Amino acid sequence: MMPNSFLIEVNSKVGVRSGGDQLSGSVNLKTNKICERFIQIKELDERFALFIGEYTATPFETTAMSAGTLIEYSPENNKLLVQCDRLGTGILFWKAIEGSFLISNRLENLVTADSQPDWSSVQQYLHTGYTVSDRTFYTDTHQTLPNTILEVDARTSSVSVCKRDVPESHGNESRTNLLIAIEEQLTRRLSKTEPSTLMMSAGWDSRTLLLSPEAIKSCYSHGDLSSRELTLTRSLSGSMRKDHLFIDTQNCSFDSSFIDSMLESLGYGIFPIWFSAAQNIQAWTGSPMMSGVLGELLGGHYGLMAWGTRLQKALSSLLLVSESIVTDDQITKAVNNYAEPPKSHWFISTEGQDVLDEYRTETKDRVLESIEGQKRESGSWQRTLEDFNMEHRARQYILKQPQAASTTVGYTLPFADEHLIDLVRSLDFEQRVHNKANREILQRSNPSLLKSPMAATLIPARHPIILQELSRIVRIAGEQLRSMVGKTPRRLGWFNYEHLYSGNTLHEITDSLIDPIWDKGAMHQALINNPQNHIDAGSTLDMICKLKTVDHYLQYLNSPKWRSRKV
Known about the structure:
This protein has 567 residues and is α+β, with helices and mostly antiparallel strands. The chain has helices spanning 119-128, 175-191, 204-209, 228-239, 256-265, 272-284, 296-299, 310-316, 328-339, 350-357, 360-378, 381-397, 418-425, 436-445, 465-484, 499-502, 505-511, 520-529, 537-555, 560-566, and strands at 5-11, 26-32, 39-44, 47-53, 68-74, 79-84, 93-97, 100-104, 142-143, 148-153, 158-163, 196-199, 216-223, 244-248, 289-290, 411-412. It has 4 domains: 5-163, no CATH class; 175-252 and 261-293 and 402-455, Rossmann fold (3-Layer(aba) Sandwich); 301-395, no CATH class; 499-566, no CATH class. The strands form 3 sheets. It has a 6-stranded antiparallel β-sheet with strand order 3-4-5-6-10-11, with no helix packed on it. The chain has a 5-stranded antiparallel β-sheet with strand order 2-1-8-7-9, with no helix packed on it. The protein has a 5-stranded parallel β-sheet with strand order 14-13-12-15-16, sandwiched between helices. A hairpin with a 4-residue loop joins strand 5 and strand 6. Helix 2 packs antiparallel against helix 13. Residues 16-23 have low confidence and may be disordered.
């Protein structure tokens, strides 16, 4: 078993008592080196309850679940019940095979001799960083989904899946009342959260979490210490009189052994800077890591505007005026373009490309099927695409950032509060987009947090979005003038990994890849050419870490058929 993991096996292979009665199925729970801030277990006789997710003092509460997944087993009814929170933040993996049911937080624990790679899922992950719906890297294994319940009958190992009940919408409430309710619920949630170290930027999510400073024990930021982003961050935390640790990415080493340790500990190799942050926080304060991840819902970050080029995003913004301005055909075309996987990759070998080409149509169809299903349910394109992005990009990719602390200090996710989510979803997308709701909440409760601008704009954050965008244009024009006179514009964002191009780290990680689907020669050449082609090292590191993650799971397969292909 993998470290910091559990495995539950339900076995319905029954015998017969002397009296002829059928024996009940068995349910066995195994654990290995669990971190109690990530996996909490309560056992009584043959009963047990297990919660996996954020660090919380009330892990087994069911009326308002914490951010994670709750598993309960009772021998009285011989049922295993798996309940996922509203956003599905505690992803588990499960499979049903010949009278048995297996479920674990680590995909590797479920690999059998017959396991096969799901190439469409591999292709999708390389393209977007997630797999579609309940699919995983293996054809015989599923993942849990948001707001669902799995019920397993231990006598038969049969599995049923249904949606959890959601309270009626608050849609009849006025916008003002909804914003007040959202603010009160977020404040209430923060007051009950274990005092944490906030992973802080100068953006909207971090500022909104500062509504309740008492929930923030300290602040932590990593990146380019000379960037405008971190300068603003220092000012914001200083105004709250919080201890703040800054780590320069120039001093961070993400070599192959570091990524390998992530894969062993977490099951993924992406966002190594967050894994390093968790270790630093453990040594510094020992408090859980708090993240503004999933604040994308309140901020209206997702929707059609999240996809495509700048021009496509600008055209998509017309949907905010009226959905009738942009036709269904235009939206469908944009969705089709998004669902289409790339025809080639700079890191795929000829053999690997031949494999992926066989699955291009299936890969695209899976995305379209998922989006079309959500469109039938919601009826609105903006809501459909927001829900798709939250279920896939937010929870499978972005959420991996704070979950990098699951083996050390644990994490807290205030924006994943179920009552808060229900309130936010009652507020139309058009009333949240561009962080409108965040701005109004902060304006009413703590306007001092709006005095500082965002990193990419020049005026205080309290001003409307139209003025913010105008100031962005002025800033860009100023930077162009500085470039014309030979001066280097100041970096805005906090991430600067360009030093990785001057060392051997990216080449070393490339050399550590094992599977023949990778073209390591082409990768080395691309790494040499990337600086002159203006391809930033941060996105390159992210992509290579995805390759390491895929490579890790391909190496776990034991199928003779699969192994023979690799000889």
